[in-house]
Every structure is written in C-alpha cells, then in structure tokens.
C-alpha cells in the first residue's frame, strides 16, 4: 500500500510540474517591437501576419551564441528538407551591427528580425526563453504546434514538420 501511495504521489507531482505547451503567443510577445534588417520597427504580430497561411519555423538565436552557430548546418539541412516552410530567425543580439554581421558571416538564409531587449526582455519572458537556440513551429492557421526544442535535429521538430507537409 505504501508503494502505491509513493507511486501515486510521484506521478501527480511529475504531471503537475510538466511544462505547458503553449499554442498561441501571449499579448506581450505579439506587441513586442522588433527591428528589420532595414533597421525599421515592426511588432511581432505584424511579422506573423506576413507569413499567414505558411508553416513557420522560428529559430531564436544570437551571433554570440556558440550553440546557435554550431546548429546552423542542421538548420540549413532543415531548410533543404522542408523548403516550403518559412524560416524566421529572431536574434537576441545586443546590437544591430553585431546581428547583421552574424547573418552575413554565417550565411543565414531566411527572414530576420532583432528583438529590442534581448533574452531577458519582454519577448524572451513571454515565450519562456531559457536557452538558445530555441526552435518553435507555427502551423498555417497561426497556431503554435511545437513550443520548444533546443536542437535543430530534434525528433519532435522533424515529426512536427513531417506532419505539416
């Protein structure tokens, strides 16, 4: 009986601590002002609106992040395997110049935006950003179908993109 109680308690506490998978962006994220490569302001909501009706792979990264840079070949493989998806790169770089140099240096193809306040800012907090790189997938209806993976070759990411083909 004691074992059953311990197992039940463990199960309840594990399920209670599981991170909720978000299916939509919080208002704070949508209202967050970012910067385009042309150095113009744009809200995240306006960015998402541009890609309505498309599968969007979001890669949150920074040019100073060694794990992000190591993952870029895997991201490029994803782009080859799933060419119909839009690849949206959101940078956590501290300056516009560092961000632009990073895009050029690493030859990153896709849509690029810079957050205005870094990892610990409004956007980062609103998506529970605790590590970069961070990958998310938004389906054609605008729903978040994959909230968090940190590897570009994560099986959950691959399965999600396969299911959206």
UniProtKB/TrEMBL annotation:
Keywords: Cytochrome c-type biogenesis, Disulfide bond, Redox-active center, Signal. The keyword Disulfide bond applies. It is found in: Cell envelope. Residues 1-18 form the signal peptide. Pfam families: Thioredoxin_8. Its main location: other. The keyword Signal applies. CDD domains: TlpA_like_family. Transmembrane segments: none annotated. It comes from the Bacteria. InterPro entries: Thioredoxin-like_fold (IPR012336), Thioredoxin-like_sf (IPR036249), Thioredoxin_domain (IPR013766), Thioredoxin_ResA/DsbE_sf (IPR050553). Residues 23-165 form the Thioredoxin domain. This is Redoxin family protein. It comes from Flavobacterium celericrescens. The lineage of its organism: Bacteria, Pseudomonadati, Bacteroidota, Flavobacteriia, Flavobacteriales.
